[in-house]
Amino acid sequence: MPSFTPTRRTLLKTGTAAAALATLGPAFLRQAAAQDADLAPYKAAQIDWQQVSGETITVAVIPASYFENLITLAPQFKALTGIDVRFEKIPPAQIRQKSVIDLTSKTGTYATHAADPMYYALYAANKWVEPLDTYLADKSLTDPAWFKLDDIIPAWRSANGIDGKLYGMPYDGEVTIQVYRKDLYDAKGLKPADTLEAYMSNAAALNTPNDRVWGAALRGVAGAGQNMYIYPSIFREFGGDWMKGGKLTVNGPEAEAALAWYIDIMKKYAPTAAANWNWPDIADAFSQGTVASYIDAHSSASVINNPEKSKVIGKVGYARWPKGPSGKRTTSIWNWGFPINAALPEKKRKATWLFIQWAASAETQARTAHKFAGPTKRSGVNRTSVWKDPDYIKLMNGFGENFVEATMGALQEDTDVDWRPRVPQWPAIGDTMATAIQSALSGQATIKAALDDAQRRIEPMMRG
Amino acid sequence: MVTTAVTSAGIASEEPRSDFGRVLAQRERRFAAALLAPAFLALLATTTFPLLFLVYTSAFRMDLAMPFTNGFVGFENYQVLLSDERFWTSLLVSLVYTGSTVTLQVIIGLALALLVMDMKRGQGWFRVIAILPVVLSPAVVGMIWRTFMLAPEFGIVDFLAINAGLGSKNWLGDPTLAMVSVIAIHTWQWTPFAFMVLLASLASLPEDIYEAARLDRASAWQRFRRITLPLLRPAIVMVIIMRTMVALTAFAAIFTVTAGGPGTATEILNLYAYRKSFTELSIGYGSALAVALLIVTIIISGILFAMRRAK
């Protein structure tokens, strides 16, 4: 919680509140005054926060520290708006299914949920969620000057938009960057890779399995958010185009070259077990000192800097995605955003929007990040202004050399909103591709056969 | 309400009438039906209805990703299924998985039961230890095996394999080894069940037959072949039936260990139906796959039940 620094406005507001509540007794007075100081930055917005007071909404989130911090602040939201928020924590693997089932059945169980950007095409095609522009434009619900939509990281906003309409408000996000062991690189006089080719040769130079150090690791386990989180970037960097001539294409020479690079590095320089690893396994291995470098979400920095488990604190450096043969860098941009369930009655939709506006606001973002009293700090705040705050930068640079520069560089310059095919059929396509990539990696099928088979399976999904 | 009726009927019985017994029996039947009704309805609602709904759904195209294509398609999903290579692969994987785990469970379970029967001391302890894997959740078992046991370079099994001179193996990343691994995990978890059932049956076998066989100088192998096995037959068949039905519909352990991978190497039919329905969001086709699994399970257990009655 921020320290209480009275400004003219808060003093005035506290005074008004005190006068209004004077008859209610000293206990109430103290409580009201404290809350008012907390709420002052929100009350600067020219909207009536109390307009749907008394509503109750349920929000599904994943069990992650960045949402835990938000849950801790929920009483402030209740005091501000009079809206009760019930949080339900669902692991990432299940939250997509649970929310899809809720949205299909139109029961409106979850007013909003932590949503995968790749699902908005599906949500929008079914009209399961509301476009947010009407809420943003409604003066009684949103104060644009206070909310400052443009301050929210543009890459994440475009990832959550379909045909120019925003469907989910980014709350916390990530971008993929190179993470490397600065001490090992320095010892061999290596630099973080600028190209995929250099990344491979760096991995070769550092790969010494007999000393239990492997050159690199990428996500190997099959799944739309797993190996299909890394491969699409490589595919795009090799010049691949998902929508070749308007037709979804996953095979062809660029795809084969991209998959060959991925399999090559996984087979030669990654621990054998990595074929079955997701990002926590990679981050664990890296923090134990057995992996020299990996390319993954910048948010894994908190795992490799956990003082209780990590052996590599102070030895970590960061850099942007290496460039591909096409000369492009393509990171995977990703965020947990909040959409509004279209099955809700109007009052609840308003309550949900007020919640989303509160959670995505610069003030709440700061209070759940560098201004948060608890031990966990967020590395995925949604606002450019917070990323420029010296306190936040100081906190983030504690993760290792070049962390903020690499992350912001990647977020602002290396993004490509179509790094994955954004179509409603994505869940099926992602899973089919994930299986194909893994069967090629495990030698069950050749690269070409795996990709051609995936193409054959994906075509009927697109025909409809 | 109903109880009072019965009591008043009881009082009225001071003057017995000819049709009194019949009335009483009828009332009791009605009372019994009233008591059973809630349970029966609950059973219908939770088992029969979802099953019928599943069959009904399988006659539709229900694709959440493309809602505009949804509609009644009759048997089309089943036609697609028959020419779906991945369906046949997953069916084959299911059969291999079921066949090998059930065989292993019966053989190892029986061997252990015979061994423990001869133990003079510590039988109780052995039973307690043996039952432990059964009480663990399959998902937990999957996690343990995936992270602590089978991870190459890091896991216990791989450590043992390296020390035994076999070298490090990619237990879950190689298609064949992954299949061997999931079979081993299922067998590890469920052999104790076979062991407990067979041990209980062994303990109840009449001692005098063995006594007589020994007097006739039958060898240990002869006694096992001619006496133990035939007498244990009902128990063995029962174990096979129960384990087959569970193995065919196994899910949690495979899902956590390999999720059907690498590629589709360990994708049993149940897992394929799940992925089609909930990951790919093709509910109609997923239902058709589930119905196919149901039919396969009914046929196989039907055959096994027939075998049980055969002698």
TrEMBL record, chain A:
<keyword id="KW-0574">Periplasm</keyword>
<dbReference type="Pfam" id="PF01547">
    <property type="entry name" value="SBP_bac_1"/>
</dbReference>
<dbReference type="InterPro" id="IPR006311">
    <property type="entry name" value="TAT_signal"/>
</dbReference>
<dbReference type="InterPro" id="IPR006059">
    <property type="entry name" value="SBP"/>
</dbReference>
<dbReference type="InterPro" id="IPR050490">
    <property type="entry name" value="Bact_solute-bd_prot1"/>
</dbReference>
<keyword id="KW-0732">Signal</keyword>
<comment type="similarity">
    <text>Belongs to the bacterial solute-binding protein 1 family.</text>
</comment>
<feature type="signal peptide">
    <location>
        <begin position="1"/>
        <end position="32"/>
    </location>
</feature>
<protein>
    <recommendedName>
        <fullName>Sugar ABC transporter substrate-binding protein</fullName>
    </recommendedName>
</protein>
<dbReference type="GO" id="GO:0042597">
    <property type="term" value="C:periplasmic space"/>
</dbReference>
Automatic annotation (TrEMBL), chain B:
<feature type="transmembrane region" description="Helical">
    <location>
        <begin position="283"/>
        <end position="307"/>
    </location>
</feature>
<feature type="transmembrane region" description="Helical">
    <location>
        <begin position="91"/>
        <end position="117"/>
    </location>
</feature>
<keyword id="KW-1133">Transmembrane helix</keyword>
<keyword id="KW-0472">Membrane</keyword>
<comment type="similarity">
    <text>Belongs to the binding-protein-dependent transport system permease family.</text>
</comment>
<dbReference type="InterPro" id="IPR000515">
    <property type="entry name" value="MetI-like"/>
</dbReference>
<dbReference type="GO" id="GO:0055085">
    <property type="term" value="P:transmembrane transport"/>
</dbReference>
<dbReference type="GO" id="GO:0005886">
    <property type="term" value="C:plasma membrane"/>
</dbReference>
<dbReference type="Pfam" id="PF00528">
    <property type="entry name" value="BPD_transp_1"/>
</dbReference>
<feature type="transmembrane region" description="Helical">
    <location>
        <begin position="31"/>
        <end position="56"/>
    </location>
</feature>
<protein>
    <submittedName>
        <fullName>Sugar ABC transporter permease</fullName>
    </submittedName>
</protein>
<feature type="transmembrane region" description="Helical">
    <location>
        <begin position="190"/>
        <end position="210"/>
    </location>
</feature>
<keyword id="KW-0813">Transport</keyword>
<feature type="transmembrane region" description="Helical">
    <location>
        <begin position="124"/>
        <end position="145"/>
    </location>
</feature>
<dbReference type="InterPro" id="IPR035906">
    <property type="entry name" value="MetI-like_sf"/>
</dbReference>
<feature type="domain" description="ABC transmembrane type-1">
    <location>
        <begin position="91"/>
        <end position="304"/>
    </location>
</feature>
<keyword id="KW-0812">Transmembrane</keyword>
<keyword id="KW-1003">Cell membrane</keyword>
